[in-house]
Each structure stands twice: as C-alpha cells, then as structure tokens.
Amino acid sequence: GILHEDLRLLLETSMPAKKKKALLGVADPKIGAAILEELGYQCQTGGVVAELLRGIRLHFPVLVKGLTAQSASKAQLGLGHSYSRAKVKFNVNRVDNMIIQSISLLDQLDKDINTFSMRVREWYGYHFPELIRIVPENSTYCRLAKFIGNRRELSENSLEGLEEIVMDAAKAQAILEASRSSMGMDVSPLDLINIESFSSRVIALSEYRKGLQEYLRSKMSQVAPSLSALIGEVVGARLISHAGSLTNLAKYPASTVQILGAEKALFRALKTRGNTPKYGLIFHSTFIGRAAAKNKGRISRYLANKCTIASRIDCFSEVPTSVFGDKLREQVEERLAFYETGEPPRKNLEVMKEAVVEASEVVAEVKRKQEKREKKRKKREKRRLEALAAAAEEVENAENTENENHTEPKKKKKKHQELEAEPELEQNGLEEEVVPKKKRKLAVEAAREEEEEEKKKKRKKKKVAQDSEED
C-alpha cells in the first residue's frame, strides 16, 4: 500500500491538484488502489486499459521521437535484468539459499558417512570381528580401526589411547581382552594400510559434518532465529528447504506446514479416501515425540500454527530476534502440559505482549551496537584517508626537496664565480663599492634611457642630412 517515491513525484508534477477527478489507466489494481489512497487520483483498471497499454508498448518506438525499436528492446532487457537482480539481491546475512544448500549437503553427508562406515566395519571385521559388538557407533569404530591396526600389536601400553577414543575404561579393557582371544583372520600390512587410509577419510568426513552443522546453526540464527528457537535448526532448515525459501514458507497456511513433507501420503489418502496424515517434517520435532499417542495430532496442529507465526515474524521483521521463538516454544510446552495434566495455558495475547516488549528492548540494543560499529568503521576509514593524505604530502615534499637539490648547484656555481672575481679586483688594485640593489637598478635604467636618447638624436641627424641632399 506504500506508493514509491518516484511514482508519487511523477504523478504530483505531471497532474495538478485540480485534475484529481481525471481517470488514470493502471494495469495493476493494487497500484491503482495505492494511488487513490495516497494521492486521491481516480484510477481505472480493466480489459480496455490492458489493451491500451499493450498497444502503447507495441508501438512505443513510433510514438516517442528519437527512439528506435532496437533501443526500446535494449531498455526492456535492461529493465528485466534490473528487476531480476533486485529479486535475487537481498541482504547478504539473510540469504536462505545457503541454508537450503547446507541442509541438503548435511543429509547427503549423513547417508555417505553411514555407507562408508558400514564398509569399514565389513572390511575390518574380517580381522577383528568382536569390535563391532563392543563399539556400535560408526565414527568411534572408524577411529578405533585406524588406531588399533593389527590387533596382535595391541598391548597394555595402548590402553590410554583406547580410553581417549572410547571415553570409557571398561570398554577399553574389553577391547584389549577381545583382541587377545579374537577369532579373526590375519591381514597383510598392505591391506591394513588401505583400511587405515579409508578410515581416516571417513573420520575427516564426520569432522566436516560437525563443522557444517555449526555453520547451519549460525545461519539459522541469522536468517530464522524464531523458527530455529521454536522447532530446532535442522527441522526449521528442512521446512525452508522443502518450501523453497523462507518467504514461501511464510506464505503457507498452518494446515500446509503441518503436512509439509508428507504430500505423497496425503494424495494417496485422498485417492483411496482414507485417513489423511497428521504430520510431515515436523514429526522430527521433540514435542510430537513427547506427546501421547492420542495427542500427537493435536500437538502437531498447534505446533504447525506456531511455526507459521514464527516464519512470518522472521521473514518480515527488520531486525530478527529469537524472543518470539522462545515465547512460542513456551506456549507449546504449556499446551503439552495441558494435554497431560490439565493445567490451563496462558492466553496468546498476553504472551505476545510480553514478547513485543522484550523484542523492542533487544532490537534497540542491536541497533545501538550497529551504530557503534558504524561509528568505529567511519573512524577507521577517516584515519586511513588521513594516513593516505599524509603519505601523499610526504611524497610531494620529497619531490620538492629533490628539485631544490637539482637547482642548488647552479646557484653555488654563480656564487663561486663571484667569489673568484673579487680577488682579481683586489689584485688589480680596484675596490668594489658596496651599492644597494635598488640603486643599481636605477643606474642601469638611467643608462639605458641615455643610450636610447642618443640613438634617437642620431636618427634625426641622418634624416635631416638625407632631406638636405634631396633638395
């Protein structure tokens, strides 16, 4: 409903206030409503206006002088590029594309690490089959396979290393005892080298997965803090990825968010006229797992409602904070306790009022910090510019001194010649009178004037002599 400043200025300058009753043809009814609300100009939308605008767009090069069809097509292409760029270029810190890619990579890494760990178990199980029962965890098993190598070389000295990996003294002792009475086959050193190198690759992948999870957590706290505080970073990222973007997720109603990820089951239920699914991706939330079987549907519906509110707050707020997400999480906890114990939860209006007060304080603090950072940045920029200016002045001064040094030898030569001339005068018995500079100039000028007067007299005499000869 807010009219753009350029469009407002164009309408106010092109149409005077007296012509407010004149009709404006607008293609989009929303723009027409905004113009009427802001400026009071009546706007008409409909099929006739669309046809007129289409005709103007088609014959625009003919209607405007000096505009060719090629330049008009270039202008349209540039407008399309700028529109697409504006759609793509949002705030760098709030881009949800990175969340979509990172959660997809995280899921792929989970599958790959699981597959590779099973391959390590099968490969190393020929040599030490009892280790699988003692250590069922994949990453720990890979680290043990790399650390142990040949089980026959395992001794009491290796207990400390085993305890560091397993984090349990009893398990480390069990591994040592199992290695002494193992039924596994012997393996050549070359095979052990290959097993150890593959295990190190799997360990590196699992370490990278941890780092990627931390990156996803930090991005979710920047892009959708309320949603991640309510339902968790991983489930919130999966919802954003499945919807396509945070904006699309904010546009969905709560009923769609509830079954997001279970579309196949929904269409199958609609086709067979069976029971529709109660939850999709939000099933991975802890709330539904904690609820009783009869309350799972109700708590999933309530949770989907709160997820929709949180996603809309994250999408359309200027400074996103996790305050609303924490309050919404408290509401879900209270509703869960209500289903179990019957204790009535707080009203949504009260909770939201508290959240608005806390969020305003947090936003004010964030803005204050941003202003401080901006001031510091400006100071640093000012110091940098001053340093550059000082360096430029030093360079100029150095160049000037070099030029002066080049001119000094000539002056020294002149002085040296004058000093040489003085002793010659003294030898000839002449003494130079000390005369000021001004008097010297005046004497020189007087001498010149006398010479010019003499030249003029000679010219006059020559002329007189020539005239007498002619007569």
TrEMBL record:
Its main location: nucleus. It is found in: Nucleus, Nucleolus. SMART domains: NOSIC. GO terms for biological process: ribosome biogenesis. Transmembrane segments: none annotated. GO terms for molecular function: snoRNA binding. It comes from the Eukaryota. Belongs to the NOP5/NOP56 family. Part of a large pre-ribosomal ribonucleoprotein (RNP) complex, that consists of at least 62 ribosomal proteins, 45 nonribosomal proteins and both pre-rRNA and mature rRNA species. Within this complex directly interacts with TCOF1 in an RNA-independent manner. Core component of box C/D small nucleolar ribonucleoprotein (snoRNP) particles; the core proteins SNU13, NOP56, NOP58 and FBL or FBLL1 assemble stepwise onto the snoRNA. Interacts with NOP1 and NOP58. Interacts with NUFIP1, RUVBL1 and RUVBL2; RUVBL1:RUVBL2 seem to bridge the association of NOP56 with NUFIP1. This is Nucleolar protein 56.
